[in-house]
């Protein structure tokens, strides 16, 4: 009989191994699913995981990869602080939208003024503020009324979604757009455009911000007392209170950080790859970032790697749709599966399995 | 705008219909949480139920079989959650989120060929005599059978928790799993059964949307209903009777805003559409009462 | 052997890394109160869990009234007439008394009938209890009554009691013993687990002593001295902490005046108008039955729970409003009762646990808040060395340490910060005798060096051994402190709240 036995302390090896095992298992099970759908499994897997990096058209795919990984990493980093502290902001999608609306709003307010040195930084700040304000709602309600932040932050995603519709049809609609929904395209407004810093690399300011955030998060978590408090609060809330961590303040700070980073991601996206406020602007980065955060073990470096992997499944999935006719939802399923397997494999970090002689019943 | 176009009798009648999917999902989740498990995957199980319901109903031509298929689909998904959280001891919050993301993908995949499909009709049942009562008759006694299934489930869960021995044991497991284990109750077995029941209920709720409310299949059509169901469980303070109230309150807001949209109120449609979500937040802030089950969301592992 | 109720022979149960029971054999006679003695970790609880069907032995057999007895689960054990009163973990706070009792029975009658029977039995045995009350609102003593009545309703052949007196005042203990003697007279056997030797001498006629999972001896406690039993239990002569002679009374360092605070959570205790002063160099012992405000008092003193500024003052300055780190900076250190998850974070390393409270006083962070990990490691290793914490190293997670070693680390961590006021809740709870002795010695040494020390404990012997003055906490109120020297058990019992509302059993033996 198999029995579980708690390890005296978490296994270091499994901490690093678990995500890799999860990826491999997902590939195997995913391949089986593709086979059931009548698609060649090996080719599907290769199309998703290999071709965007090293395939025939990799030159086109790589910049796209960078553009997709940027927001995922940025949002996931923000979420990781809260998740470590046991504060569950799962409404990053809404904060991402609000960041985009605020950022684009600032840009459009200045249109057509030419002062990039002023407008672009203001947009970044506005995006962060927008996301932060949106995240502060569940934060403050949790602190003041003990309201569940999971539910409130999630409800606000739907509210933000309708807000986006309303903006693209109303306040921010392009006055020269012949009545079509959607704002002016910021890609055509040089002072606000968040384009590639080196043409054809996909490397825009949002990606730089994500890399910068990786470094800052790493230092904060491993070297600073703030990171220590975050970890402590997540692992043992009572010990944190005894140590002197102010739980309410921590809720607000963690919600604020995750909101600000999600908002910034939204702003970089709307000012760059997406270009305009439109009801189809958001594609679920805020939710995928949750997977990225867990897959990356809530560790900044891990998140960087996981963000790249998840971007790969997006790009590869799109290619697979075109070349193999793989349904779009198959990729979403794939991402969900990845998180499932990771959570399952995680067991081995804290437990070991032992084979014991079957006991007489 | 023309508020006189809103017929209060029809409004109340459609409120009962609008409340049903949430009520079904919420009563299932209530049982799960009373057993001490927090399953945040309700949305994923509902949407999977919506897709499975359509598939079974369309292919068999029988709406009842559609509901049965939906319950099975929701249950299958919840079984994954049960295995992960009860045997693999994974974090319930993360696993629930994963279940929702997985369910959204799975349902989209399952339902991809059913976007054009129309489900078989699911006729209302005219309850003789009662449905002839003026005003009350059309409001309460002239609906499709699932409306009553929902009500019967709520009443059944209420009676189960309050009067039955098994209900007492379930509450005990949710309140203090260590103590329940020490007395010899099978914490994990009881929890798995509760999780499966919750999955079946969520599946039914989802199918009600795709087979009756809309009725057709579109991706992501549950639009947060599962999350609202979770919120209603909190609002209800884990009590079935209050849950009924919460579901109707939510149904009322939904129906009212739809009617206001139809009546051409000066407020833009987007803002009216937000109102159920904002109402849910307000309800959580203002009206939440009650104490959560003692072991809610905690992982149980019988050590020595 | 008709008068033998339960016979255990050769019971062995091994867990990875530790043999909990090794070839344990003894028998319990009908109508006998049999003591099972042993230190923490001696294997007592594994053994009783085996009898109760919660643990399956690797080898060995049990015989109940001549028939083979292998309960696969507690239900089966209960059906065979075994009942157990747990030390903790077996009541449901949100359920009422009747529901709690029904959960522990095989075929409970209807709720109405059950309530009536609860009233009957509780009156017969002098354990008044209202079946409709919610258990979370009951005192520790009342909660134990729920457990006992749950057992009595099933007319058990064998009643197992695991450390039953730790939650009772001395007067309540006397009444409990009356009840148990009546039960014995009715023919019920009792397996009584304890490490309190005087109690065992007063109640039991046979004792089996366990050490490290093995039976190391048996005796008749009525004819064996407590000291002899203690040595069998521990396997060595115990070092008794020495109190240094006090030169003179120091100044008042900590003054608590009119401290009142609402209960921090639903089933907590409110603090009511507590006033006491503690002087440099003295140990103030605070006794009390569990759940009478101990946790809340420690939280109020450590800063975890804020109060009005003037309610607590340190060297004349109000500190009641300050958060924990500001108090540590001033010189107040505390160690809460629960080691795992309160005083220490179980999944964090000892170095990280050193930072948990040491950050301020030991300057383990710099001005900008960056942690000096090297310095933190040094500090953790000093604590480990000075307090003889047995661990492979400072990188080990706190949960990997045994209770005694982690407790030495937690208390050492506070003492090494050289506080002027030290508050400790339950310093030796669940700690083996050798570690307990060294912890008590460390507390005395700290006081001798001039710190004002408050020790809160449920172990009255411990308090009498180390305190200069003694006060009792009862329902959130603190009695006036009295010099510990010369206090009798009876006086202490009255300070703790006497017998509350218990009465002597009415059964005629």
CATH architecture annotation name of the largest domain in chain C: 3-Layer(aba) Sandwich
Shape of chain C: globular
Oligomer: heterotrimer
Tally the beta strands of chain C. 21
Structural class of chain A: mainly alpha
Write up this protein.
- The complex is a heterotrimer of chains A (361), B (304) and C (509).
- Chain A has 361 residues and is an all-alpha fold.
- Chain A has helices at residues 12-36, 41-49, 51-54, 58-84, 92-110, 116-145, 149-169, 205-223, 225-235, 237-243, 247-271, 285-295, 300-324, 328-345, 347-350; strands at 2-6, 351-355.
- Chain A has a single domain (58-326), classed as Orthogonal Bundle (ABC transporter involved in vitamin B12 uptake, BtuC), CATH 1.10.3470.
- Chain A has 15 helices and two strands.
- Chain A has a two-stranded antiparallel sheet with strand order 1-2.
- In chain A, helix 1 packs antiparallel against helix 14 (328-345) and helix 4 (58-84) crosses helix 9.
- Chain A is globular.
- Chain B is mostly helical and 304 residues long.
- Chain B has one domain.
- Chain B is 70% helix and 1% strand.
- Chain B has helices at 8-34, 42-60, 63-87, 92-111, 136-140, 145-163, 165-175, 177-182, 187-213, 225-235, 240-262, 269-287; strands at residues 125-126, 142-143.
- In chain B, strands 1-2 form a two-stranded antiparallel sheet.
- Chain C has two domains: 4-234, P-loop containing nucleotide triphosphate hydrolases (Rossmann fold), CATH 3.40.50.300; 252-495, Rossmann fold (3-Layer(aba) Sandwich), CATH 3.40.50.
- Chain C has 509 residues and is of the alpha/beta class.
- The radius of gyration of chain C is 24 Å and the shape is globular.
- At the A-B interface, helix 6, helix 7, helix 12 and helix 14 of A face helix 4, helix 10 and helix 12 of B.
